[in-house]
Amino acid sequence: MNKNTLIILSQVVLFLAVTAAANQVSVRAETKPDAPVEVVEIKEVGISGADETKSVIEIRWRLNPALNAGVSSFKLLLSVTYADGTTLILTHNADAESVLAQVEVPSAKISKRSPPAFIKQLKATVIAVFPKKPI
After folding, report:
1. Residue 90 in contact with residue 104, Cβ under 8 Å?
2. Which end of the chain is less packed: N or C, by CB atoms within 10 Å?
C-alpha cells in the first residue's frame, strides 16, 4: 500500500467512526419502583418494510405479576426527539397479552431549509389499562 492509499483509508475509517458516534440514539425508559408496568427495552430494530423512510422502534415491557389478571390493554406513549430538537409524540394501543410493540416513526425530520435531522433520543411509557368497575 502506498502512502496516499493509507491516508485515504485512515480518513474513511475516521469518517465512519465519527458517523457512527453521531448517529447513536439515546434511549431512556423511566420506571418508578412501584409502577404496575416496567419498560425493559426500547430499541430501533430497523427500517420499515412498507416505507423505507420510517424506522421501526420496539418497546418491551414487564407487568407486575400481581396485576396480570386485571389488565384489559396497554397504552404506549413514545417520544422521539430528533437532532434539531423537534419532538414527536406517538400513542399506540396493545392488547392485554402483549409484552412488546413495534411502532413506525419517521427516520429523519426533513426540512427544505436545513439538513435532515435524525433520531437522537427515544423515551417510552407504557400504561396498564384496567376495566372500569361498576359502581
Report:
1. no
2. C
